[in-house]
Design brief:
234 residues; alpha+beta; four-stranded mixed β-sheet; Glutathione-S-Trfase_C_sf; Glutathione S-transferase
Length: 234
């Protein structure tokens, strides 16, 4: 049996991490028999990150590499899609896992009101005497990363404009279809749904959640995606 090593669930999401949730959805789509193994500290894992798939005596890190391995085992994550649609889908995944994911990270880790909920939950497994210290160290590291890539250096208005640009592009690609590339979910939805869903389920409403919810297509898409792709996960 395949084992997905993943961060635990939180806030009605299958995992803290959108990449872990993505990997779970891909495993469900693949038809493979699998189980989850929750891990709070991934420092001993390849790349020091999660998700990691334990499969046939090897550890496969990163949701993109997990998708690739499952494809070699016969999974089709783009059913009935043309090569052009697959290329568009690949580009959409990269777009969502860049700006929109950075926006999620920003409001989870840098917004003090959300951090008041996020910090205690994400570091619940750390011994209480050092929990606040460790959480603070990791939070500062996340802040430094967002400053390094420029996202945390932008004004609120600039961050929201980038988010709005991505949401408008996503809405145009999706059109009237139930899923991003058409009538059936694909690997694109495995990436898009967790990011949008985790923004929508931030503990405290922010300007980011309001922008995401303001798009007419997002609410129905989240409802459809959660009922279809999160079934048995969350």
């Amino acid at each position: 049996m395949l084992t997905l090593i993943t961060f635990p669930p939180s806030f009605s999401e299958p995992s803290h991490s959108p990449f872990c949730a993505k990997a779970m959805i891909l495993l469900q789509m693949s038809g493979q028999t699998w189980e989850r193994e929750d891990l709070a500290n991934p420092s001993a894992m390849p790349h020091g990150r999660l998700p990691v798939l334990r499969a046939k005596g090897q550890l496969i890190p990163d949701s993109e590499f997990i998708q690739g391995w499952l494809t070699t085992q016969g999974a089709d994550f783009f059913p009935d899609c043309t090569d052009e649609q697959k290329a568009i889908g690949h580009s959409v995944i990269k777009m969502v896992e860049e700006t929109l994911r950075n926006a999620l990270i920003h409001d989870r880790w840098l917004d003090d009101q959300n951090w008041a909920y996020i910090g205690p939950l994400f570091f619940d497994d750390v011994p209480r005497p050092i929990r606040k210290l460790i959480a603070g160290i990791v939070r500062r590291s996340v802040r430094a990363g967002l400053k390094s890539n420029g996202f945390a250096r932008m004004s609120l208005e600039q961050r929201l404009q980038k988010v709005e640009n991505d949401l408008n592009a996503l809405g145009q690609i999706k059109g009237a279809s139930p899923f991003i590339l058409g009538d059936a979910p694909t690997a694109v939805d495995a990436a898009v749904l967790p990011v949008l869903s985790m923004i929508d389920r931030l503990p405290v409403e922010t300007a980011l959640t309001r922008v995401v919810r303001s798009k007419d297509w997002v609410g129905p898409y989240l409802q459809r995606g959660r009922s279809t792709l999160y079934d048995g996960l969350a």
